[in-house]
Write a structure and sequence with these properties.
With 233 residues, the chain is of the alpha/beta class. It is 24% helix and 22% strand. It contains 6 helices and 10 strands, in the order βββααβαββαβαβαββ. The chain has a 6-stranded mixed sheet, with helices on both faces. A 4-stranded antiparallel sheet has the order 1-2-3-8, with no helix packed on it. It is globular, with a radius of gyration of 18 Å.
């Protein structure tokens, strides 16, 4: 297994820059799959040549085990709501579940708590009405890693935030070393295009004009216009 940067004399392929900070990225290979890593902010990127097409990606999403009847899955979502939504949301807040998937259970659980919710998904709920208003919270629950251009996507989503709004993210933090990345289960999903270290999410937040991310849990990041939960104001 080759997990070291490609050396001189090996085909480097097309030059790639970090999708957050634009620094030249360093290519490396794990089990014949090419990745890149940003030496500045630590973002990992799957090489464009190793990304699935639209039909393959949609089929892969349908394999995700998001059964709304699974009590463990429901509890996992409830932990996110309790840690990353409730402390930041006023009663009746408007929440967009961006990338809600084929089984929008998170959207439904938020609606059960009397939030005004809507879901969007490129493949499974592709309506456009959500673009015509602002939102108190925009949720990317296990979605950020699927975006090919995270900076552009979050810059647009930030433009839809209401004053003092938040972007709530859940994603698995990437390991720092290439050796640990090579063993990391999260990279095995071929639809995970960008994988984020805490430093890369901090850089991403700063690049779109939001504050230092708040981390309610190791895999949760709140990007906030006011940078404080309402309960602390």
């Amino acid at each position: 297994m080759d997990q070291t940067p490609l050396k001189k004399g090996r085909p480097a392929g097309r030059r790639m820059r970090c999708r957050i900070c634009a620094a030249p990225a360093v290519p490396f290979v794990v089990r014949a799959i090419r990745f890149y890593r940003c030496p500045v902010c630590g973002l990992y990127m799957r090489a464009p040549s190793c990304r699935p097409g639209t039909r393959t990606a949609r089929a892969r999403y349908l394999l995700h085990n998001n059964n709304p009847q699974d009590p463990r899955y429901r509890a996992w979502l409830e932990r996110f709501i309790e840690a990353a939504i409730i402390p930041f949301a006023q009663p009746g807040a408007s929440i967009l579940d961006y990338g809600c998937g084929p089984e929008p259970l998170l959207t439904d659980l938020l609606a059960e708590r009397a939030f005004m919710t809507a879901g969007y998904d490129l493949y499974f709920s592709p309506g456009r009405a959500w673009k015509n208003r602002t939102w108190d919270i925009i949720v990317l629950h296990e979605v950020l890693e699927h975006l090919p251009e995270p900076l552009d996507s979050l810059r647009f989503l930030k433009s839809l935030l209401a004053p003092g709004g938040h972007i709530a993210i859940r994603t698995q933090p990437a390991p720092e070393s290439l050796a640990d990345f090579a063993r990391w289960w999260y990279k095995e999903d071929t639809t995970h295009l960008c994988m984020f270290s805490p430093a890369s999410i901090e850089r991403l937040s700063a690049s779109i004009g939001l504050g230092t991310p708040i981390r309610p849990a190791p895999d949760m990041f709140m990007l906030s216009a006011c940078n404080h939960p309402y309960s602390l104001l």
